[in-house]
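STRUCTURE:
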């Protein structure tokens, strides 16, 4: 099991303005999915792709990644995920991302870094 992302409110607020954020909402205005991306030295870093569990398997993750593709079509996009996240890796591969390296962190988890031109 991969541990959830953990950050304090202060850490979140400190980095929030550095990211472009896109969200999907349902008819009641509830957030059902989101993604963020930022430009860093000519490269687009994609992060925090999220879909509410009640709305999974409906193509929303593809839609979110597609939005970033539309916004950043001329840029190289990079992201990373845990190597145990097979569903995510499969999606990213279908969306044109290729694995470029793998690392293991201090917790013993391995992460794959992927990119798309």
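SEQUENCE:
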């Amino acid at each position: 099991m991969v541990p959830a992302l953990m950050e304090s409110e202060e850490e979140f607020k400190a980095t929030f303005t550095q990211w472009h954020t896109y969200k999907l909402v349902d008819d009641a205005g509830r957030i059902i999915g989101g993604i963020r991306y930022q430009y860093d030295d000519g490269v687009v870093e994609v992060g925090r792709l999220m879909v509410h569990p009640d709305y999974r398997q409906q193509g929303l993750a593809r839609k979110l990644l597609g939005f970033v593709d539309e916004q950043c079509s001329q840029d190289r996009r990079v992201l990373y995920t845990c190597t145990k996240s097979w569903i995510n890796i499969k999606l990213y591969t279908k969306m044109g991302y290729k694995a470029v390296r793998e690392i293991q962190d201090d917790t013993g988890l391995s992460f794959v870094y992927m990119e798309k031109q």
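REMARK: Residues 60-71 form the longest helix (12 residues).
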